[in-house]
Amino acid sequence: MKKFVLIALGLLAAGISATAGEKVFALATAGDVEAALAERVRVRLEENAGVVVRPAAALAVEPGQSLEAIGRAAAKTLGENDHGIIVLARPADDQPQGVCLPHERFAALNVAKLEAGADAEHVERRAVQEGLRVMSMLLKMAPCPFPLCVLVGYEKVEDLDQMSGNYCPPCLDRFTRYAREAGLRTIDPLAAEAALAAEAVPAAEPAPAAEEAAPAAEAAAPAVE
Predict the structure, then answer these.
(1) What is the pTM assigned to this prediction?
(2) Ramachandran angles phi, psi of 157, nearest 5°
(3) Where does the chain have alpha helices with state H?
């Protein structure tokens, strides 16, 4: 149930803020990557970054295809209103953890590398962290020196587990400013909360029609002698 509520929240928030011509990020999978994982990552990227991330069609991975080639193939699918695309991929062995080429408008993340020594929860968290990092790169933001920021530098994938899962306040402000300057569609958190609340309230049962209620009333009335 929680999964479907999160999906509904992301879609409702995106719809509320939609304006013709605004840009969005796209998120796709390539190879053997669970669609459910990608959807959870997409929703959390929207929540943390405050911009719309649309689900894109899955891509096939050709034998021996490099992570960079996967990213370039994904970039060819970009729509008119896509600012850039992020790919959760499972490429061949001996590929890097990630590739981000802002001038080509793509980033590709190696899920196999993110899985090293991690359970499902940590894999998802790492994917969100890396997603936030490459989203900032696609907006041409600089890294952050603050230790409590997801944009701080690190050496090995296990370091992600000890790092923040989000931007620090100054970086979030900067990301928001860059996103607006790039024409990205933002999400109104108040509207999203209202939409979620509306989804959670059960619909009232309709009152019986007058012709249906009448026989019941007659049956309940005492007989007149």
Answers:
(1) 0.77
(2) -60, -30
(3) 2-17, 35-49, 67-75, 111-114, 120-138, 169-181, 189-200, 210-220
